[in-house]
From TrEMBL:
SUPFAM superfamilies: beta-carbonic anhydrase, cab. Binds 1 zinc ion per subunit. This is Carbonic anhydrase 2. InterPro entries: Carbonic_anhydrase, Carbonic_anhydrase_CS, Carbonic_anhydrase_sf. It catalyses: hydrogencarbonate + H(+) = CO2 + H2O.
Amino acid sequence: MSDFYKKILENNKKWVETSLASDPNYFEDLAKGQTPPLLWIGCSDSRVPANEIVGAKPGEVFVHRNIANMVIHSDMNMLSVLDYAVNVLKVKHVLVCGHYGCGGIKAAMGNESIGIIDNWIRHIKDVYRLHNEYLDSITDENERFNAFVEINVKEQVFDLAKTSIVQSAWKNGQELTLHGWAYGLNSGFVTDLDVNVSSDKDLDNVYQLKF
């Protein structure tokens, strides 16, 4: 057994002991069920831990992660998570969180073949194509990179709003607001991209203002 594997097993034991020391019923209470107010759709990057970024405890954030925090209408994994969060858990907020320095976004800005992930990155490239005139006008490569991260988040919020799941929730009068953030790896702070959408009307207004 590798030293790393032994270490993570030992870390689990320490975590359990620490949790029980602060609250003897900690795990018993968690096992009773979950009522998280938030669904987090984020990047798979190991440096972007959903719970820690917002200071949430276990049970407070329902999480879906993939390369570059994409909302793809044919992705049954994402749709299943969204459906469960909205229709069963009744979350009130869905947050798409991208991050500056995202490898998936960077790969979509180039033409190198990486492997099977090329098929996934194709979706990100489509976002660039929609906004290529604006992005290509940014001469500084790092600024263009950061702008693309933000634009991608916004587009995923809009795609999220157009899913039948979110549309049905709004039609039925369910309280549900969509948000878009960009997380700074080098600072720990998030940037609220000001795409807070709770209806189709909000979606149209935000889209006109932000692009």
